[in-house]
Design goal:
alpha/beta; six-stranded parallel β-sheet; three-stranded antiparallel β-sheet; 9 strands; binds adenosine monophosphate
Length: 285
């Protein structure tokens, strides 16, 4: 099936009018990798029509340099989406999404928004909720699929849909990793090969924590956090932004392991900031 590319919101709205079947939507910023493609496959389990958007949203970037350097390859992306059952790719311009005079935002305001990514990147989540709300208004999906890789973003978007009574089934899909455990990310391409090698420490450190909790029975997360930081600090080229054990429900720090904890981190290697997380959970039997 060939993928249709639509740039204009009016053209998309007209196309949308004709659709009565269940529609699943995967919003992305492009530079697609297997993590994104897995979201598309997940979308196909929920709906007969799959739409993808590619939009590098200026309102969620804190630095112009980061925005300008964000990788863009729409034709390569469309090739990757061939044969996955994608009907349409929406690629709006910045002017389409934010015309002159644009001034209405969706602002999430509760404690989680100011933690972790929210603390490091002020205004980031307001940019994310605003653009996803706008995309939802234009596309009007029945189902939307996001990645667990951006765990905090997922929680915030799911809450937006609940808080604003939007009739959209929010689906979350597991993180897709390289063979050595590094979470796939469009930012990985910016790593030099020595940096790429060092980046494997992220997943290794999280798996070490998982082993200490589940196999060795360690429960003191405050002590484990010190071990986690020590392990990451062994690599001088790696700078920790945050690395924490938190509740998967509200992202508040946890000091004692009970049934389930999320280890989440952002680290900087060279000039590249990498995010990752892992749910550590006792088997239910
Ligand atoms: P992005 O293009 O980075 O804005 O990501 C678009 C969607 O893909 C978001 O829902 C991300 O959480 C998801 N995503 C990014 N990387 C991965 C990955 N390695 N595995 C699964 N989902 C991912």
């Amino acid at each position: 099936m060939s993928v249709q590319l639509i740039e204009q919101t009016a053209a998309l709205a007209a196309y949308r009018e004709q659709i009565t079947e269940t529609l699943a939507f995967v919003p992305t910023m492009g530079a697609l990798h297997d993590g994104h493609l897995n979201l598309v496959k997940e979308a196909g389990r929920h709906a007969s029509r799959i739409w993808v958007s590619i939009f590098v949203n200026p309102k969620q970037f804190n630095s112009k340099e980061d925005l300008d350097k964000y990788p863009r390859d729409v034709s390569g992306d469309c090739r990757k989406l061939q044969n996955l059952g994608v009907e349409l790719v929406f690629v709006p311009t910045v002017d389409q999404m934010y015309p002159q005079g644009f001034g209405t935002f969706v602002t999430p305001e509760y404690p989680m928004v100011d933690l972790w990514e929210g603390a490091s990147r002020p205004g980031h989540f307001k940019g994310v909720t605003t653009v996803v709300m706008k995309l939802f208004q234009i596309v009007r999906p029945h189902v939307a699929v996001f990645g667990l890789k951006d765990f905090q973003q997922w929680l915030i978007l799911r809450k937006m849909v609940q808080d604003l009574h939007m009739p959209i089934l929010m689906v979350c899909s597991p993180t897709v990793r390289e063979a050595d455990g590094l979470a796939m990310s469009s930012r990985n391409a910016k790593l030099s090969s020595p940096e790429r090698e060092k980046a494997t420490l992220i997943f290794r450190s999280m798996k070490t924590m998982e082993q200490k909790i589940l196999q060795q029975g360690m429960k003191d997360l405050a002590a484990l956090k010190i071990e986690l930081h020590a392990m990451l600090s062994q690599e001088p080229a790696l700078q920790i932004d945050y690395a924490e054990f938190v509740s998967p429900e509200n992202l508040e720090p946890q000091t004692q392991f009970q049934q389930k904890v999320l280890v989440m981190m952002a680290v900087i290697i060279g000039k590249t900031r990498l995010l990752d997380n892992l749910i550590i959970q006792k088997p239910s039997h």
